[in-house]
Amino acid sequence: xxxxxxxxxxxxxxxxxxxxxxxxxxxxxxxxxxxxxxxxxxxxxxxxxxxxxxxxxxxxxxxxxxxxxxxxxxxxxxxxxxxxxxxxxxxxxxxxxxxxxxxxx
Length: 105
Prior knowledge:
The chain folds into two domains: 1-62, Multidrug-efflux Transporter Regulator, Chain: A, Domain 2 (Orthogonal Bundle); 64-105. It has four helices and two strands. The chain has helices spanning 8-15, 19-28, 45-60, 65-99; strands at residues 34-35, 41-42.
C-alpha cells in the first residue's frame, strides 16, 4: 500500500483487526488520524506501521496494553536521542571542517 491516506476499512484489512478495535486503539495509543469534514478517519503510512506494530506486540508478543505503550514510548525516546546525536555529529563535523580549512568560511 503506497497511498497518502487510507480509510479505516483499508487499515483494518491491512492490520488484520476490525475497525472498532482500530478506533479503540486510537484512544489508548499515540494515534491521531486526520479527519475529513464529514468526520471520516484518514490514516497515513506512519499510522499503518504503528498499528501493525501494536497488533504484533499485543497479539504475537503477548504484551499488555500498558506494556505495549511503554515499549512504544521507549522506542520514541530512543529515536529522539538518535536524532539529537545525529544533529550533534553534524555540528561537530562542520566545526572540524572549518578548523581544518575544508570550507570556505
